[in-house]
Design brief:
Length: 197
């Protein structure tokens, strides 16, 4: 891969569907993902998917990583963690809007970074900044949760202070929003941020 000049962190739109899907497929089997129509709906809503886009000397761009946040009601989260409704079977109706007062869980279903890039710290830092913005402006969240699908995912969750929920059907990691918010001091979020590499 050619050396990128800069990285732009921004919200993904519908036009980014194929690029985020390509990064997703590098790490996850497609049978784990929600239906394409659900993902497209979330991209159209805006605010659910963040990407890191590299720009090269010839002005070409490439999406090299992404993460997603889904607001879930306590009931939806319980159905998911119990195994009653696997994540891949969630619908657009199951994934709330960020300002929905019933959304009690800020869920991180995935973080994906293209293999061969070294953007892990950059994308995790942006995810923390965005989570802090959401937790401090949308006070109805009571829990932050992530699915520890891979060894890397489990490691990130643990380093962020999340504890594994041993009662769940899958490997979900959790931290209370109160504890998570205590770690937000000094963090700032920008909807679009460009970083020289």
């Amino acid at each position: 891969m050619a050396r990128a000049l800069n990285a732009t962190l921004r919200f993904a739109g519908v036009a980014d569907f194929g690029a985020t899907e390509a990064v997703y497929r590098e790490w996850f089997p497609t049978e784990l993902s929600v239906d394409d129509s659900v993902y497209a709906e979330l991209l159209a809503r805006g605010g659910y998917v963040r990407i890191v886009e590299l720009t090269f000397a010839d002005a070409t761009k490439q999406v090299a990583g992404f993460y997603t946040f889904w607001p879930l009601t306590a009931a939806t989260y319980k159905r998911m963690t119990s195994g009653e409704t696997p994540e891949r079977n969630l619908t657009g109706a199951d994934i709330a809007r960020f300002d929905d007062p019933e959304a009690a869980v800020l869920y991180v279903p995935e973080i994906g970074i293209s293999k061969g890039t070294h953007l892990g710290r950059l994308i995790v830092r942006d995810a923390l900044d965005y989570a802090c913005k959401l937790l401090t402006t949308q006070r109805h969240f009571r829990l932050v949760s992530a699915w520890g699908y891979s060894a890397v995912g489990k490691s990130i969750a643990t380093r962020l202070g999340m504890k594994q929920n041993h009662l769940s059907a899958e490997e979900f990691f959790e931290i209370s929003s109160e504890v998570a918010t205590e770690r937000c001091s000094g963090r700032s979020f920008s909807p679009e941020r460009e970083i020289a590499l």
